[in-house]
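Researcher: Here's a chain I'd like modeled. Treat it as a single chain, no partners, no ligands.
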Amino acid sequence: MSYRRELTRRHGDFATIGVALVLDRAPGTSTVRGARVVFCGAGPVPVRLRAAEDALLGTDAGEPAVRAAAETVLTRLTPTDDIHATAVHRREAAAHLLVRACTSAWERCS
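Model: Modeled as a single isolated chain. Structure tokens:
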């Protein structure tokens, strides 16, 4: 199941940071068989974070796995500062958005 979330200052603005997430559940189980995590607003082009995907694979997408994926965002995503947001703000917002996206997407897979 796919899910997309973004953070903007005002409705209709370009995203300060955003995440697109695809989770694939193994048939007949509650295990993540496939995951794709991509961020926009973290660089000049969308950024795929394979470490976050790896943190989710083979898990039940429960709180520990989602927390581990969010931690990879905090340690591996390297956005830049600009006039709209600092890199720290973007990184923290990206981790928060990933948690929300994982939770929502997994609920929709059920």
